[in-house]
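To assess whether the prediction recovers the assembly geometry, we first specified each molecular entity separately, as shown.
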Amino acid sequence: MQELIQLVEQKQYQALRGRLNEMNAVDIAGLLETFSGGQAVILFRLLPKTTAALAFSYLDPDAQEQLIGVLTDRELGFVMEELSMDDAADLLEEMPAGVAKRVLAQTDPADRRIINQLLKYPEDSAGSLLTTEFVGLKADMTVKEALNHIRRSGLDKETIYIGYVTDEARHLIGVLSVRQLLLAEERQTVGSLMETRVISVATTEDQEAVAQVFAKYDLIALPVVDSENRLIGIITVDDVVDIMQQETTEDMQKMAAMLPTDRPYLRTGVTELFRQRIPWLLLLMVSATVTGMIITGFENALSSMVALVAFMPMLMDTGGNCGSQASVTVIRSLALGEVRFRDIFRVIGKELRVSLLCGVTLAVANFLKILLLDNLLLGRGVSLTVAVVVCLTILCTVIIAKLVGCTLPLLAKKCGLDPAVMASPFITTIVDAVSLLVYFGIATSFLR
Amino acid sequence: MQELIQLVEQKQYQALRGRLNEMNAVDIAGLLETFSGGQAVILFRLLPKTTAALAFSYLDPDAQEQLIGVLTDRELGFVMEELSMDDAADLLEEMPAGVAKRVLAQTDPADRRIINQLLKYPEDSAGSLLTTEFVGLKADMTVKEALNHIRRSGLDKETIYIGYVTDEARHLIGVLSVRQLLLAEERQTVGSLMETRVISVATTEDQEAVAQVFAKYDLIALPVVDSENRLIGIITVDDVVDIMQQETTEDMQKMAAMLPTDRPYLRTGVTELFRQRIPWLLLLMVSATVTGMIITGFENALSSMVALVAFMPMLMDTGGNCGSQASVTVIRSLALGEVRFRDIFRVIGKELRVSLLCGVTLAVANFLKILLLDNLLLGRGVSLTVAVVVCLTILCTVIIAKLVGCTLPLLAKKCGLDPAVMASPFITTIVDAVSLLVYFGIATSFLR
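The predicted structure of the complete assembly is given in tokenized form:
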């Protein structure tokens, strides 16, 4: 890498061209991203045209925009011709209006129509992921004809390994892999060989569900149909791998009280990170007013028993941890399609039993800890009554926390919200208030 | 599904066979899992043999063990013959020793040798994922010979779409796709067409890194080589999709203070859930002793200023949220390979600036909240000194929390630990103690 940068700076273009020829388009894209527009375009022009277009498709949107700014109209037209339809639609979605207009102007009218069609599908839907460049077959073709058809038209297809069989009205009636074609006799017909139990998704399907279908059925491509089972396009597994990474990142960001972004961390600006993080921090901080009010309400009890304060952080953290264990388990199970809303009573039943086990164990352990560690070793002199109050609170808090933690993501899903938001930070804020109420409630009734 | 269960109960085997023939092997596996051993084996015997073996490979380990228990030796032998090598090795890894012994006894000796070889690779390494059933080509083959070779040997291969070219000493020297073969002239040679810039991984590579290579280069299969670049086997993209789901689930479980498991939630027993959750809960509860001690140490200050207690939960939660935002961001970036340990100073610099922005915003917002909401609206009568103390504490806590949150995962990675453990619960426990020390420190110096 260092060496390549040096070659660029020393303008050794001949040597550079040789080195670039040995590189993979993905790595070339990585290299282009490290240069500014002027230098990047020099590199770009040293590449064979198809490699250049392929490398362009792997650039991040910022680098794509920069490069488009310095490309000639002809160069841009060539890139657009080579891009697959789904990549072209993604590109236009990311570009500012002015750039998108220029890009579309350099695109072949037929392609432009398809791209505009793809752009109409909602973001994150199967429709927004599909490409129209698939191998279409007819049931009355022979194996030989099908293979010849693939040979003739295969160059521009996203994958040639699965052929999609449609009838006259474009209804999807079967799929046939190149593997089956190669292993069959030349005279057999596509109709006799094709798999008619076709797994497909609707254009409106969410991309997370699309990823689940790929994972469940071990597919390399999945056909997308409209509401009348007409074949619109296909989604390929390489896009699904990217989606899975992106969905996971988004879920984790939401679970940690951040607004999701798909920009890599080191390339995200400080103010963007700030904007991503501050909204939930503010909201959660203000909602802690409730815990403050609860404490103020019990101020008299507290001033006569300051010893109670020492256990507050432990109680709140334990409650928060228990709640986030349950919520993260349910959030992940929802994302994998293992749990649905109708399982809510099974989930509650399970969490109730787990929380009883956890609660009793933690209460007993804490009682022993107070007697042995706090009193004997550290000499903190915690009274037996306080110890009992703390342990009873643990038991109640754990149960409540696990129940809140497991139900909120399910309810969120039911209401059409993203369950991932119902993770640790949100649960903690609720559980804090509840555990303090329980704590002071038990304490005042015991110490009265 | 309901209908199929009824057919089994009414022993309508003819109708059942018809229905099963229309189903996909993955869905048949799902159906088999809902039955007990006796009924499952009846269904299993109604299936065509290859479908039966394929469905078997999709069963979860518990169902596989149950079914093996009721299969005859001959049936078991047939299943093992049909399983691909990586699935066979996975099966043996999951089965108890007695069952594994019986399975191996019914396996062809040549296969047994390969399986034993695969079982030697460490769990979660590329070696443990690979299968030896790939298409091997030689550089001097013509396109026609290569296609004929694939036709003859393709039936048992995991994928036929990529051929791997090796020299006499089994060194991997090139790859060639069926797409390229189909689009080329019959007389061209494999050597002239093959891609020599081969992307491969070592047998010792971690499965998370393997998934990253697939995501980066949009592959459908990846060759695995030993330390001398000899081709050992290949990993296919369908396995990678499963690994990505599994790795994500494990990461999220660790981030929520649970021991990882790959068993679906609704099929996990209560005691297993308990065992998965209680260790971290206990550890974190006991480590809260430190916060307890800090509070006890400032008991005198507290008893004269009980008002301070009311802000403790808010301060601890805000600190915890800030810390987990930073830690989750870094954990995810590490998992995606976007950030490495050597970036530690860039990360710290970025987080420092973000935390200053967040800290100042939160402190100012909190000051206004105390004046307007707490004092004016709720009439809690918070003194100006307390308000200043709280706001200064927020600023310090946010900065410390973000720094702790971003450095611990990096340090964990450097020490060979899993960074995912350094998420919210762990960070919160540390940040709690720090924020209380800061709070009481500032409070005593202001209120003295």
